[in-house]
Structures are given as structure tokens and as C-alpha cells.
Request: fold
Amino acid sequence: MTQTLVQTKPRSIIITYALPLVLAVAALTASAWLGFPHPFAATPVPITWQVLVVLALGLAAPAWLALGSVSAYLTLGLAGAPVFAWGHSGLVAFAGPTGGYLIGFLAAVLVAVSLRKTLGDKLPARILSGLAALTAIYAVGLGWLTAWVGSFETAVTAGFLPLILPDLLKLVGALGITFGYQQVAGYLDKEKPLQ
Reply:
């Protein structure tokens, strides 16, 4: 019995795996730094672009990239790198009112990737996967915020109602990014448009 060793070129590993992972973590970090307080509501949860990036990763990226980049991002933040909104980091960021939303990002990509495999790549399936991923973010985020503020009603008032409309718009943006990614990557056949 002979064994064949497949020789991998270090450059192709870097281009294929490391570069997309670094770019995805950079996108998550930049999307957090572009946060701002809600202009119309008193909420401890800032409006950032993280949800857009998390949804786009979950809906378009390969599973290893979606899960790996969000895990790496959270690990960097936990280790003290200032990657979260307003440059926050460390255990304090996870223990604060937004910690559940951060953990919810990992739940969101798990849900989106799983549903994508189950439901397929057509637009209605992507919309459903995106809504389920968004639900995962809010389920974990609101659960955490409820424990933090002591009331589910207060958590919904501060951590859901002022944010859901911007996040639904981010889902629309993530679907657009997904479509563009599919086109660039040659994922869709030209004769089989996204439905």
C-alpha cells in the first residue's frame, strides 16, 4: 500500500485561509469602531455595523470562515485587544450590558451556517436564515441584558425596540453583500439568478 503525500504551498494556505480570516476579523473590528449612541433612545447598546458583518459572514462565507472569524474576534476582545464598540475589550466588555450581544454573534453565525446548509441558497432561504440569525443575537443579548438590568420589559425597551429597525436594514444590506459575494465568487450560475 502506498501513501501519497499532498504537498501544500504555504502561500496558497495564507491566501486561502489566513488572509480571509484576518480580513473578516478586521471588518468586524472596523464595524464595531463605527458605532454611535442611539440618537432617539436611551439604550446601553450602541448602534454599530457589527450585525451587518456578522449576518453577511453567516449568510455568505464558508462555515470555517464565518465561525472562525467571529470566534477569533471574540477571543481577541476577551484577551484585551480593543476590538469592540468604542474600543472596549476584556472581561469587562463581556460582563457589561452588551456582553450577550457579543456572544450572540457566535450563535448567529452558527444558526445562519446551519440553516444555509439545510435550506439552501435561494433568496427566501437566505432571508429566513438571516432572520433566524438575528433572532439568535437578540435571544442571547436580551437574556443577558435582562439579567443585567433586572427586568425583561426594560431590556426589551432598551435593547430591542430601538435597535430592531436598524438591524433589519442591516439584514437587507447583508443579503445584498451575499448576492454580490455569490456573483464575484462565481457561486451562482449565470443562468440561475438568485430567486
